[in-house]
Amino acid sequence: MLTKRSVPRPFLRRDVALLLSGIMIAAAQRGRGQVVAPASQPAVKTAEPALQSPEFEVASIKPFKQGDDGVRVLTNFTPDGFTGEGITLQLLIRQAYDLEDNQIIGADKWVDSDQFTLHAKMDQATVEALGKLDPKQKWSLRQKMMEALLADRFKLKAHRETRDLPVYALVVAKGGSKLKEAKDDDTYPNGIKGPNGKPSKSMMSMGPGELTGQDYPVENLVPMLSDLTGRHVVDKTGLTGKYDFTLKWAPGEGDTSMFKEASSAPNADEPGGISIYTALQEQLGLKLEAQKAPVEVLVIDHAEKPISD
Q1: Each residue's pLDDT tens digit, 49-84
Q2: Backbone angles phi, psi at 93, to 5 degrees
Q3: Contact yes or no for 213/222 (Cβ under 8 A)
Q4: Could you give the angle at the alpha carbon of 255 between the alpha carbons of 254 and 258, nearest 5°?
Q5: Labelling 18: which of 61, 92, 146, 205 has CA 20 to 30 A away?
Q6: How far is it, in rounded angstroms, from Cα 194 to Cα 202?
Q7: What is the pLDDT of residues 92-146, one digit of tens each?
Q8: Which residues lie below 8 Å from residue 58, measured CB to CB, with a gap of 6+?
């Protein structure tokens, strides 16, 4: 059973965000089969030699052995590297290129099914050089390191295209938004204080059939909705503030998020169940409208299962 976990507010990339709407892209980098980061994340200018071509010094990849505690998915960029347990190549691609599942096209089934344990470490010079950068620069360079690792160990080759795909436009429902604006003196369930409190941090708590946001912008809710609905979501609410909210629904057959299989909640079609679409409108005053729009996608040209260490 997946447990509820707290996720820090993601760094903004294009609109983001997993994080998104309208990814802006650069070009495919030849040679190693890498794809460069979106144009909204330009190369970090730094005089540090260790960061000119950032790569992990060592990386260990092994098939994940599931324990008695059921499904386990853990990913984290550590101060000196990256660790992941129960992760798939699909998830690593998402993190490296700031994509949603529906933006990854042409991958073999194993890319989103085979699980691995991955531990990667930087050399000390890289760790020290990263320590001098601001958070956004660190995130961009860590992603480039992940891109290099995927090209090296998974032989990943891919390119970007723009395709017309079904999307959802997130709009304010009739009757208006029901979101509560975060206030300076707010105290949240986990004890974190409001935007001007000490400490101050935007957070999202996720679990089967539940999302709780504190001091959280709508644009960062969008990637969560994309994951839950399996369709790219575009923010058209016009809401620019930060909000406190709790969204509860019954995960059902229409849900594509990783929380669905771990949930024991009733199906949305059964008595007492409520879909994510209905929950959004009734609880937050927001609505998902079906549309079609150009979406940047990553087309997987080649990928191989890594040789275990």
Answers
A1: 667 778 899 999 999 987 645 555 667 788 899 999
A2: -65, -40
A3: no
A4: 150
A5: 61
A6: 9
A7: 999 899 888 889 999 999 999 999 999 999 999 989 988 888 888 988 899 999 9
A8: 120, 121
Tokens of 221: 């809710």
Burial of 131 (0-12, 13-18, 19+ CB in 10 A): exposed
Q: Using CA atoms, how far apart are residues 71 and 89, in angstroms rounded to an integer?
A: 16
What's the rounded Cα separation, in Å, for the pair 242 and 31? Answer: 43
| Cα end-to-end span (Å), the chain | 29
Find the radius of gyration of the CA atoms of the chain.
20
Between the alpha carbon of residue 238 and those of residues 171, 172, 235, 292, the distances in Å are 8, 8, 8, 19
